[in-house]
Fold each of these.
Amino acid sequence: MPSRWPSWPTVALVLLLLWAPLPFASVTPFGLLVVRAGAFAVFALSIWSERRSFRSSGVAAPVTALVAIAALGLLQTVPLPAQWVAWLSPERLRLATEAARVTGASAVATPLSLTPSQTLSTALSFLAIAAILGAAAILGGDRRNRRWLLGAILVAALFQLLYGLRHLAAGSTAVWGIDVGRDGSRLRGTFVNPVHLAPYLEMALVIAFALAWWAVRRARRTEMRTEWRLVSVAGPVLVWLTLFAGLALTRSRAGLVAAAVATVAQGVILAAYHRRWRLLPVGAAALAAGVALVAWTGLEQGLGRLLGTSIHSVAASARVDVWRATTELWGRFPLFGTGLGSFESTFPMVESEQLAVVTWEHAHNDWLELASTGGALAAALLLIGLVALFIRLHACLITSHSQEAAASALAGLGGLIAVGFHELVDFGLTLPANALTLAVLLGVAAATDPAPGSE
């Protein structure tokens, strides 16, 4: 097989990457089933067919953390003796005792989760993402596989822009012919909510930034005609500008702020990597170029929501009240939480009358929601996994003998920063397509470089 072609497991993962955003970001039961089944299948194919072992993939710690969170979810669904529950989660025992008193039943054994079926489903999702992260790291060690996987994310993101722009121009609120009942003046692609398209575009944005840096480095070190050097650099730059304009059209304030933070951070990382502090403004310059493009093309409405947001309006936002209530919920179930995926069912226990006028399916803060549903144990496991992943990505960046592998690590660091920041005020990672794409990006970025000196 020619070296330019990817391995068969990579082909399967590329197809899954391209497909996952299309059925409403895979939030439908069928879409979720395909993502989960595809994740386990790709992981099995990667282990079976690739020469690299999982231990050398560089993501053993974060994968173990995700698997441990899934195992915690399974534990939450197991009925436990009342004495155990009294020690592990006193509030859960109190609720079970009250329910038994009302119904006249005897509370002999009680699961820690208040919604065991939803917790089991969420635990399977954590396992699926762990499988994808592991598979991407195994496959991403090969340069050809890495290029195909990162390229698939860019292609899928650009398709979202093309599909979304067509509907945006027509003022349509439909996705695949189904009216989703949302604002027709915002770019949504095949996502129901344009806010959830934003983190997806952020992941492609950080890849394009890293690709532009690699293209500049390659053009400077390769003997080619000046016009070809310009062409090789112009491509990634244009892709980055296009993605930024698309992100602005989602009118997601959190998305724009997260993209700005990640872009500036990538510039700072590059300055530290090269030990040339004059490169510090590179990220800020790229951000300024993106904002200038949005303004020049007459798309100021993409920035209007962000510019019109005051500190007072943020402080008075209902989301702040939701965060306070979610913190209270965590305080009532501090160690093991209410059960993974149980937020919508358990939040009414702590919501105020003002918040009760609408149904809150999520906390609009993925990290806080995990703490309330998985407890301090799940939060600690996730923190350990993220710290280990960050250390791994940093090591890949500074020790890699390949500029291309270093660019992948730069993209991974940017993705971790962008999405991590965004999810402080949103719940985009609850969408299977976003979680899958982030796992692939981070897995590929954390893969060891098997070809020193390759470009």
Amino acid sequence: MEKFSTVNDFDYTQNEYIDLVYEIMQNRKRGEKPVAFIRTYGCQQNVADGERIKGMLEASGFIFNDKPDNADFILFNTCAVREHAEDRVFGNVGALKNLKAKYPNTLIALCGCMMEQKHIAERMYKSFPYVGLVFGTHALHQFPELLYKALSGSKRVYLRDNDDNLVHEGIPVKRDGSFKGWLPIMYGCNNFCTYCIVPYVRGRERSRKSSIILSKARDMISSGYKDITLLGQNVNSYGKNLKDSLSFAELIKEIDDIEGDYWLRFMTSHPKDCTRELIDVIAQSKHISKHLHLPFQSGSDRILKAMNRHYDRQKYLDIVNYAKSKIPDVSLTSDVIVGFPGETYEDFKQTLSLIKEVEYTSLFTFIYSPRVGTPAASMDDPVSDEEKGEWFKELLSVQEEIASKRCASMVGTTQKVLVESEKGKDNILNARTSGNIIVEAKGDKDLIGTFQNVRVTKAGNWILKGEFIKEDN
């Protein structure tokens, strides 16, 4: 495993801490090699962060286990976007009390977005004294140093709120997959939607240099990655903080020009930064997925203004309609919040009408969850949880009908798919179209990680079933 480089702003002395951690763990490990257990919650950016943490641990001599019982190091990489995710973290950390008592040398740690919130970090410190290391998103590049201090000292190590507004390059990565991979191109967010905690826990927008991104993309393509997703909290505002930078549309065009057999995806897009230039690039591309994830959150202009989304319903529909006109069979997906503070049923009906007009492939739907420190958390919210729940069920029913109709329209077509995994028994494999729709088909597991053609034979509400088409010899 390649260790840290001196590229950009990264403190290359972290290599020394990697060596020190390696030495300490030779005396603390329970087995032949030190074992780490990593559990990541939340978005794809968190998953990408987890891959960098694993890269640093692997460089320190660790191997990995999917259960905490035998681990010498246990880390929860947390998400702060929804209350449910936070509750799960507290529950899982609480369940480790007996394990820590049985194996005192086991180091328990937490990192990620939750840990950048002061009230959460304070609760963790007071309520879970057996947690020895806590650090936020801005300290990831210091992980070897923090791990060394937690292993070698008697005091617990807590570090948060230390944003230096830099992008730290050269951190080793241990990817979770061999043919699907994440490629972060920027970090942070400047939008400050009133419901969202991300700008407070991830900091301001910071873009990676395009030369580094292009080099990483070439490396992934030459290594056989078939599905590459560019990541950012607001991915299509890429480059705005860099001098003489490529725009996001220019960046993905440059990646698309790289020869190879792969699909290129990106998320998450903000409607205010989704340009016609970007849509034109997608339409003319060889590798870019014909799938556009464009969160609209609400169909009501009044609620969109209260959310601080910087667009209205008509502007959003203009983008969608342009995409439909330029990209045949474009697959549109989105995020929707139900029950934002002050939302009325009339506002909600406007959301339903927008869903019916656009006809999304699928939706990520959420009932509003207040986040401490955001403006929306202090807004009047007179609608009961029970009523919001009824709205939520109504929305799901509308979207299910739309998705079912779209899936039914694909029966009889031939789709190029990337085979991703075994479903279970009977040799059924899960595959995915360029438009991000799951197709189940019977086949040998050797097909996993390859592109295949599938004839769609049956449609469900959300997925397709089909048969692999054998190529003539």
